[in-house]
């Protein structure tokens, strides 16, 4: 286990420095003030770290609130569709139609319904994540072999015990996979949403720097956005290792 952690840590370090090298190559090749050098950007980073921390906290809280609500809504709905064939036949056409639509197109709708503040931005992320969660959980339930249910029934397991010892453990890997997919899309959508009617958030910070043509500041925001995504991914890895030890390789 320690070896795996060391390898993962080394991969993160190697990946980060590979990005820096790639960035330096682009900077030297393009030779434009639009792309600042990594050294100048990291030097500037420490002058705005307090401001960036404030903006980062705002974005993180928005994503956490949205993911929490999406999980609370998506998991029960996915389980319901997975165990109830009639409900699945009834609602699947709607899910298949709505799922491919770019959810950022609904931002004006949410702003009209919920105002220009945090609620509309959180609702947008929920709208993005919840359908991914529902479909992933539903598919996870439907992949459980029928023989597993028959074994539970042969031991006179109650419905509650079937959910606790069979259905929930079976769908957890699908839940984490859905969350990983959703995080990247959520951050991209949050960046878009934070450009409208807000005064804080990493998306607002990046676009504010862009309008001022302060490209070092802009790239500082981009770096932080990447670190936020990395933070969420590492937290998911820790939770998955703790909650699904049987799935660890």
From TrEMBL:
Instruction: Give the source lineage, highest ranks first.
Output: Bacteria, Bacillati, Bacillota, Bacilli, Bacillales
Q: Which SUPFAM superfamilies match?
A: MetI-like (SSF161098)
Protein's name in the database: ABC transporter permease
Bilayer topology reads: Multi-pass membrane protein
- KW Nucleotide-binding (keyword) present: no
The residue ranges crossing the membrane are 12-30, 60-82, 94-116, 122-141, 162-179, 185-206, 218-236
Q: InterPro entries, from UniProt? A: MetI-like, MetI-like_sf
Q: Where would I find the ABC transmembrane type-1 domain in this sequence?
A: 56-240
GO BP: transmembrane transport
Q: Which UniProt keywords apply?
A: Cell membrane, Membrane, Transmembrane, Transmembrane helix, Transport
- Location of the protein in the cell: Cell membrane
User: Which family does this protein fall into?
Assistant: Belongs to the binding-protein-dependent transport system permease family.
Q: Which Gene3D superfamilies match?
A: MetI-like (1.10.3720.10)
Where does the secretion signal sit in this chain? none
User: What domain of life does the native source organism fall in?
Assistant: Bacteria
Q: Name one GO cellular component term.
A: plasma membrane
